[in-house]
Amino acid sequence: MKKFANAIKLVAVNLIVLIVLLGGIEFYFRHWGHEKPDGLLNGLWQSFQPYVMVTTAPGVYRRFFDTFTNETYPSTVRTNSLGYNDRHEFVVGHSYKKAANEKVVLFTGGSAAWGVGATATDRTVAGRMEYYLNSLQSGERYTVINLAMGSWIAFQQFIGLQMWGPQFDPDWIVSMDGFNDAGVGCNFSQGPGNPMYFATMRSYIDGYLMSTQRPVFYRGWLENELIKHSKAYRIITGKQYVPDDRIFDQSSTEHEVYRRQIIPTKVGEARQMLAFYLASERGMLKLFPQARYILSSQPVVNPIAGDFDDIYDYPVGSPERKAAIEKRTAALEGYLTQYENDMCGQDTAHPANTYILDNGALQLEQLVDEEAARGTAVEYYNIGTLFPVSRPDRMPYFIDAPHLTDKGMDVIGKFYAERILAADHERPAAAFTAASAAPAAPAAPAAPAARAASAAPAAPIAPAASASAAPASTEGREWDYLVGLTVKEETAEEPVVAGFQPRRLTATPTASRHGLGVRFDNLKPGGTYHLSVWLKSASNTWAMVEGRDSNDPQTGVPVHYGVASFDLQKALTTKSSGDLAKLSVAAAKDGWVKVTFDLVTKDGRIYVTANLLEGSDGLMFFQGAGQNVVFGGVGIEERE
Question: With contact defined as beta carbons under 8 Å apart, do 339 and 351 qualify?
Fold first, then answer.
């Protein structure tokens, strides 16, 4: 008995020593130890959610990190209870009560659209969009709902819009995406059609529900090993061993911290990922038949020319632009084919990312053209074109490759607001043309999507008039196209086109196209018309004039299109192509330059645009610095 008591005493002493040692260790680390920070810079902690798979963990996000300035800065971003960066709560089945003069815009996308990088919720793209929508006009009240979510691909956006969008009865849907669709499938190796973290979700489903006699939500490693080696434990509990067949991305520099789980995927599967992205975008267009849409590609800090070559240097619908798109598409296919059998991962995904990101923008533009030609109220923009050309000049707008500073979000929010206001206040009942970013009458098929550019609100002029009488002018006409310019009546100038007071067109300080256009309706289908465009400028100024009829619904491009560039100081044509017949330019009295040409219209409609160019090289897209011309109007008469 004494021997047994000594044994108990020995065990008790050892337990006390062990407890004291553990307590001492805990005491030390509580007072002098430092927990390792999570290291999740510019990332969002996420939680599983029904249907949409994941949403951001709700709460306050207090800091972001600018990788270009190497600075951490404070933020007061506060989410709603579902993790959306919005002040409204989203409840399925509840209806949002709009005021009599209120319009609602739903905004969706990934983490850049959610607002990673913003110093406050009202500084996100959605917040700035709402600000400009209400400050640039006073007749209506606009509410912008931010339905974007970190890591979401387009199909998750589709589901989110379907779940929470109807309660707001939206007037507009605006999406800014493509980056996650390019990165999740291959860069994070989740496979075609799968969202972020799908490999991890699948492990929960396969390992802890499908493979056990008694389903459990979670089983720790220790218990699983006990089940593996103990027959008694298996018989008593009725549980089965779950093989650990998880695969992790060994190429990721973060894998030791986050152990990112993957699904083995080949680079060539980017083709299926691209098709899934485009199908999701098309699906979004069918959710709200009464709403208007803007679909757009998310910007990144790298220069847009690095991905799209010179595609956006050419006018919409021009043979040069079509040829540039075909050349780039072929190069992307060749690039992917070269690496298609490589396994996806952080180090190998660049061919897939580039293939999806670039083709996604080009094919989404084409998709929008096709849908607009069928009567869908939709426009497309590549948002990357809003920012300066060079990477150093783009950096102040970004905190890392895909995420934006307050300054960058302001640029985008203002652009969306201007496009929405231009459509709502110019021709409220009309369909849209993606080329001019202004609505066109339903009879006119949509023009090809243009490079995005910051636009000034259209001048408050009367609706378009018939141009069937000869001679006709732009007097009384609304601008059919106005982008990157301020327009001011030049009262000191005498009219050169009957009844039209000349306007001074001044380039705004925006990296964009700078142009103004008019439209002539009710012409004779198949007729030939003689047009004259009047311009006056200071020295060393260049301009470009375009003429076209409506887009063919089968091809998405104008049946007749032509473009010409001019040195206005010398009254010389520097370049021309297309269908502008009998093209000429001549100096006229009082410093005016008169550009004339003949154009055939298949459908009885003609569009004419005048654009400012920069430098002797004739750059169409440039950072405006006050360049200006006086626009004397456009005259038109039918040829006999």
Answer: yes
